[in-house]
Specification:
Blueprint lengths: L3 H11 L6 H12 L1 H29 L13 H24 L3 H8 L2 H7 L5 H13 L8 H18 L1
Length: about 160
């Protein structure tokens, strides 16, 4: 799985060199932020069902067609899949917080995600709205420390930008 550490070591190895001072400074920054990332991962993990539910409800509020199961192209299955996907993205954010990089998001959430949604004729806008809500919902110090919130929001921004 790709993380900052594996990326730095892999790049140096591919170039046939030792990690540079700049490489090591990046790693040091990653290590210094580790406790904040782990705090954010822990807080998200302990509250993921509520965060996912509230994010899904925000998506329904902005895109009410997700909640219209009686209409031609909308089914309860589609609603369940949307809610499941939102929770899946949040879980990948949690994994990325733990590893200190975007590897889990890149490998399991983003790579091919847009293509799958296009192939199934699913809009990404509801997912973007849900993740934006999750991002704006977080509050320091109520939910986590300020640095943990920065780490969490950075990864949410990463997913939002990739789906936009």
């Amino acid at each position: 799985m790709k993380s900052l550490l594996t990326t730095v070591i892999g790049a140096a190895d591919s170039a046939g060199r030792f990690p540079t001072t700049s490489d090591l400074e990046s790693v040091q920054g990653c290590i210094q932020r580790a406790s904040a990332r782990l705090e954010a991962a822990e807080k998200l993990g302990s509250n993921i069902d509520n965060v996912a539910r509230e994010a899904y409800e925000a998506a329904i509020k902005k895109y009410p067609y997700l909640n219209n199961a009686g209409e031609a192209n909308e089914t309860p299955v589609k609603k369940e899949k949307c809610a499941r996907d939102i929770k899946h993205y949040l879980r990948l954010v949690q994994y990325s917080l733990v590893v200190g990089g975007t590897g889990p998001l890149d490998e399991w959430g983003i790579a091919g995600g847009r293509e799958v949604y296009r192939a199934l004729d699913l809009p990404t806008a509801p997912y973007v709205e849900a993740l934006r809500f999750a991002r704006s919902r977080g509050c320091a110090p109520r939910d986590m420390s300020a640095q943990a919130l920065v780490e969490y929001n950075t990864l949410l921004d990463y997913v939002i930008n990739s789906l936009s």
